[in-house]
Amino acid sequence: MQTYNYKIENFIRPYIKDLKNFSILEFGVKEGRSTKIFLDLCKINSGKVFSIDIDDYSKTFDDENWTFIQSRDDNFKYLEEKLPNKFDVIYLDSFHEAEHVEKIFYYYFNKLKVGGLFFIDDISWLPYLKNS
């Protein structure tokens, strides 16, 4: 958990901390660590977070700035009907398989606003397997 929060706080947060009236599309909720950090920024800078996960995390947060959608991130037709057209930030931390990451990246890249940011977390598990 310490390493995960370090990544978000020290790598991603500096890029997004000054955004105003922003929207974030997040793929992968799990324990909600990134979601919580994003929602904390929403309270300061008037943002909105849309989180997608195959597991039901709808009860994880009770926050007016958060929309949870239970779905696969590659269920494109379904999600097109649920999501806004453009985002300031997209954070991909769902299924960490190269072909899946590539498919999601190429599809959702067009949903970034001009100057938007696309973060991909944990695309290689090799560092985690090195000493196990």
Provide a concise account of the structure shown.
By secondary structure, the protein is α/β, with parallel strands linked by helices. 36% of the residues lie in helices and 23% in strands. The longest helix has 15 residues, at 2-16.
Question: What would you note in describing this structure?
Answer:
The protein has five helices and five strands, in the order H-E-H-E-E-H-E-H-E-H. The chain is of the alpha/beta class and 132 residues long. Helix 2 links the parallel strand 1 and strand 2. The chain is globular, with a radius of gyration of 14 Å.
Descriptive keywords:
132 residues, alpha/beta, five-stranded parallel beta sheet, globular
**The biggest beta sheet, please?**
5 strands, parallel
Low-confidence stretches: none
- Our estimate of the beta-strand percent is 15-25%
**Gross morphology:** globular
- How large is the radius of gyration? 14 Å
List the helices and strands and how they pair.
Layout: H1 2-16, E1 23-27, H2 33-45, E2 48-53, E3 66-70, H3 76-80, E4 87-92, H4 98-108, E5 112-120, H5 126-129
